[in-house]
Amino acid sequence: MKGISRSKFRGALIGSAVGDALGAPVEGCTMEEVSSVYENGWELKSGRYTDDTEMMIGVAESLIEKGGFDGTDMARKFIRNYHAWRHYGPGTRAVLKRLKAGEHWEEASKRVFNGEGSYGNGAAMRIAPIGLFYHDDVDTLWDIAYKASHITHSHVLGKEGAAIQAYSVALALRGQREGMLSYLGARIKEGIYRAKISKIEQLLDADRKLLIEELGNGEAAFNSVPTAIYSFLRFHTFSDSVIYAVSLGGDTDTIGAMTGAISGAYYGEEAIPPEWLSALAKAEDEGRKGLRYIEWLGDELYRIKFKI
Ligand code: F2R
Ligand code: MG
Ligand code: MG
C-alpha cells in the first residue's frame, strides 16, 4: 500500500521496545526523580526492555504464525515468553498462572480484581502489532484488539484503552496525524476516554504538572493511553515525543512504549536515534529476543499483510 513501508512496521515495534527501555529504569518515579536520573542525557541506561515488549513480541509471533488472531495460541505465546524479572503487573501475573494451569483464555481474565477484571494498561502496552496488521479495517481492528486484550484484561476500560492505542498506531502508520483525534473521537464509546481525548488539543501547550492532572501518568489504561497519544501529537520527532512521555514520571516504561509505538509507526525505523538502537541490541541480542528479532517480526507482519 502506498506510503506504508516495512520501515514503519519495524518502527512501531522497535519504537515500542525503545520507549519501554528508556522508561524502565525510572518506572514509578516522580518527574523530578526522572530528571535527576537522566540529568546527563537521555541514554538507554541498561537497554533492557520489560513486560511491555515481552508481551508485544508474543502478540506479533502469534499473528505471524496463525496469519491472524487466535486466542489460544496468543495465550500460549504469553506463557512461553514469560520472565518474572521483566516485572509484570500483579493482575496479569495471576491470569498467566491460571492460563498455564489450563484455564481457557476466555475465562481466566474474569477471575481477577474480585471478578471485575483488569483495567490496567497491560493490554494496551502490547497491542501495536494488531494496529499494524488490521490498519486497513477499523471494525476488525477494534474487534480483534478487544479479543486480544481479553486474554488478560476483561474489564471494558482495559479493552477500550487497547483498542484506542491500536487505532492510534494504525492512523500513524497511515500518516493520519492531522485528524487523528477526530477519527478516535468517532470510535470511542467509553466516557472517560471520550473526555480525555477531547481535551488533548487544548492541552498542547500545557505544562507537565497540568498535563498529568488532566490526562494522568498511571497504570490504569485510561490514565496512560491518552497521555501516550498526547506525547506523540505534541512534538514532531520520535525522540522528542518519547523523551517527553518518560519525563512525566509514573508508568514511564509503558507510556514510553505506547508513545514509541505510535511515533515509530508514523516516522519509521530511521527516525529512532541509532544510539538507542545500539543500546537495545547490546543489551538484548545475546541469546534473547532482541533488536534483530523485533525487526524480523516487523518484516514478517509486513510480508504476510501485503502477501509479498
Ligand atoms: N509491574 C509493573 N511495574 C511495577 C514494578 C516495576 C518496578 N520497576 C520495580 O521493580 O519496582 N509494570 C508493568 O505493569 C503495568 C501493566 O500492568 P497490567 O498488566 O495491566 O497489570 P494489572 O495488575 O492487571 O493492572 C495494573 C494495576 O492497575 C490497577 N487495576 C487494574 N484493574 C483494576 C480493578 N478492576 N480494580 C482496581 N484496580 C485495578 C491495579 O493497581 C493493578 O495492579 C505496566 O506498567 C507494566 O510496565
Ligand atoms: Mg513494564
Ligand atoms: Mg509500566
Salient structural properties:
308 residues; 16 helices; ADP-ribosylglycohydrolase fold; single chain; mainly alpha; binds magnesium ion; binds ADP-ribosyl-L-arginine
What can you tell me about this protein's structure?
It contains 16 helices and no strands. With 308 residues, the protein is mainly α. It has a single domain, classed as Orthogonal Bundle (ADP-ribosylglycohydrolase fold), CATH 1.10.4080. Helix 1 runs antiparallel to helix 3 and helix 8 runs antiparallel to helix 9. The termini are close together. The site of one magnesium ion (MG) has 6 residues, from helix 3 and helix 14.
Total number of beta strands: 0
Task: Show unreliable segments.
Answer: none
Ions, cofactors and other ligands present here are: ADP-ribosyl-L-arginine, magnesium ion
CATH superfamily: ADP-ribosylation/Crystallin J1
**What is the domain tally?**
1
Radius of gyration: 17 Å
Give helix and strand order, one letter per element, not per position. Answer: HHHHHHHHHHHHHHHH
Q: How helical, in percent, are the residues?
A: 55-70%
Q: Work out the helix count.
A: 16
Instruction: Identify the CATH class.
Output: Mainly Alpha
What is the CA–CA distance across the termini?
11 Å
Strand residue content: under 5%
Mean pLDDT: 97
